[in-house]
């Protein structure tokens, strides 16, 4: 009797596992399809954006070659470097900002805390780039809107408001047991040491998340970049460059190069993701409890 | 903070941070040195042997005064008129020629005026701080208590006052790049800064006229506003709800015990984030055009005869953007939710299992309450983020299809409409009004939900 039950439970588990895996596979294909499509297009021999078949008729590497050598109209290598530099600075500065503000909100108790949280929420409700025009004028007034200082102004713009997006990291810090802090205080740590030596090491996933999102901001944004760079093509970020490749006058000759560019942009970010995936594996609960 | 204390605190506000060192006390009980600090910042600190601190305060005061005398007063004085000089030709008697003068630029006058006002407000706060600090030094000296040296003050910045150290730079960033520009743009809503009536160079205050125009059902701008607002709210609800629910289910399915290759599945979905949103959206836009890849292939396969109107029919376009937004958003939810799901105490699940609860019951009794508790603020951010979701709409449909003669398309959200009005059509004042109205709508939704969530009221505890 007992044996029979476990057998039927086993088959039930097998069926549900199969359903889960099949549906996951279908979903994964849907999610990966556009990526697959870009990669194929980037190797396509025929020019132009209109295609008649899913698989290219001829394969070529010319799109990549042209992307990195034809710098007369759209200087992609330069744009790539611009964005990479900006993104690295953003990743460091924004993460420090976000983590320190989140720690303050989660662990420290001071007079303006609730006021700050309310302010952050109120500011978050305004459309992000409503202030864009004003930001440009401010940068111009400080003298950061010309030449290589454009890079600096982009970094400033991308990091300036990050102190407001503390909610997610704060929520995470809230779940780290307070007893650990108290133990550290007893051992003679001051609050700063508790932050750097207790909370930070226990918060790997959220740190990874913060760094990734901050690193990606410059790759994703193109509105601010467009407004701040104006016509100064030397300081364009990749997003403006890729956007321009799809404009009417370029799309026919640059469409496949656009796909190649998209692949190149995605590679650094994808590598980062793959490397930091491990931080998301389970056992977090165990690590905190330990 | 226990629950009962919190409840009491609601009825009778208990100030947990009460100190004797307030501005009122300083004015009332402060001695000569403190009173003088009102004029010469830092004087009280210097007298009571906090020399470096005192000098720092003094230096700040001097900086502010120099700034105000040189430019600040002039800038603030120009604010009410916003400049009258249209510029043009002026007869120069000495040289005997006409000279062109630039005239006033209202945009810059407004900006400099707002900056000066903000600097003044910051200075007033500093002044209060200096006064309190002077009073504290005096208070402690009188009672023969220890007055902190500069080194001790610095050390304090990493312990008791750690929040000041950590928050200083982020807060400055917010002030300069968020608060200041916002004040500037808000004030623009009360002017006639638009290409209408040639007010791009010189403009004036017009009070609430713009708001009346936008909210008016009879006006064409007003009608556009209400229809765009309706679609914005529908969009935000669908985009947020679908992403959250499906993202969480996906995360749970991947994390459940029986699922194999967890890392691989997660990788598949996360990879779509690794491709910048911008890129994937542009690709989808190109593929979904009337003559784009999807239509061409469907036609070749003989499934359809005419192109599917992905972005040319209003309903099609709306459904398309919502579905594509799911494609964009679910991996993000997955990524964020996975971390939190792993934080749910394993004992809860174990005890539920002992009590004989099945997967569905566990989900509704443990997972969902926990997730809602932790992620309500996240949900609200998502909702506001979707109302202000510029990228998806702008890159995918560009707001199209646009009816002839209208400034907004059928898939335009308030933000994309704002963009079109300001950047493309140069109706800066109407753009600012729409920004403010967006804010009001969101504020109403968010304040009510946020204040009623568990994690705001009792953020120290769960269960």
Description:
The complex is a heterodimer of chains A (290) and B (463). Chain A has two domains: 2-62; 64-289, MetI-like fold (Orthogonal Bundle). Chain A has 290 residues and is mainly alpha-helical. The longest helix of chain A is centred in the N-terminal third of the chain and has 41 residues, at 2-42. Chain A has 14 helices and no strands. Chain A is flat, with a radius of gyration of 25 Å. Chain A has helices spanning 2-42, 62-69, 76-107, 113-124, 132-142, 149-160, 167-175, 178-186, 191-199, 204-220, 223-229, 238-245, 248-276, 284-289. Chain B has 463 residues and is an all-alpha fold. Chain B has two domains: 3-156, no CATH class; 209-457, MetI-like (MetI-like fold, Orthogonal Bundle). Helices cover 68% and strands 2% of the residues of chain B. Chain B has helices at 3-11, 23-29, 32-39, 43-47, 51-78, 106-142, 150-156, 162-188, 209-215, 220-255, 262-274, 277-287, 293-300, 314-341, 346-354, 359-387, 390-396, 414-424, 428-452, 454-457; strands at 88-92, 97-101. In chain B, strands 1-2 form a two-stranded antiparallel sheet. In chain B, α10 packs antiparallel against α16 and α18 packs antiparallel against α19. Chains A and B meet through α1, α3, α4, α5 and α6 of A and α6, α8, α10, α11 and α12 of B.
Keywords:
heterodimer; A: 290 residues; MetI-like fold; 2 domains; flat; disordered C terminus; B: 463 residues; mainly alpha; 68% helix; disordered N terminus
CATH classification class of the largest domain in chain B: Mainly Alpha
Largest sheet of chain B: 2 strands, antiparallel
CATH topology of the largest domain in chain B: MetI-like fold
Structural class of chain A: mainly alpha
Q: Topology of this protein?
A:
The complex is a heterodimer of chains A (290) and B (463).
Chain A: H1 2-42, H2 62-69, H3 76-107, H4 113-124, H5 132-142, H6 149-160, H7 167-175, H8 178-186, H9 191-199, H10 204-220, H11 223-229, H12 238-245, H13 248-276, H14 284-289
Helix pairs in contact in A: 1-13, 2-13, 3-6, 3-7, 3-10, 6-11, 8-9, 10-13, 12-13
Chain B: H1 3-11, H2 23-29, H3 32-39, H4 43-47, H5 51-78, E1 88-92, E2 97-101, H6 106-142, H7 150-156, H8 162-188, H9 209-215, H10 220-255, H11 262-274, H12 277-287, H13 293-300, H14 314-341, H15 346-354, H16 359-387, H17 390-396, H18 414-424, H19 428-452, H20 454-457
Antiparallel strand pairs in B: 1-2
Helix pairs in contact in B: 3-6, 5-6, 6-8, 8-19, 10-14, 10-16, 11-14, 12-17, 16-19, 18-19
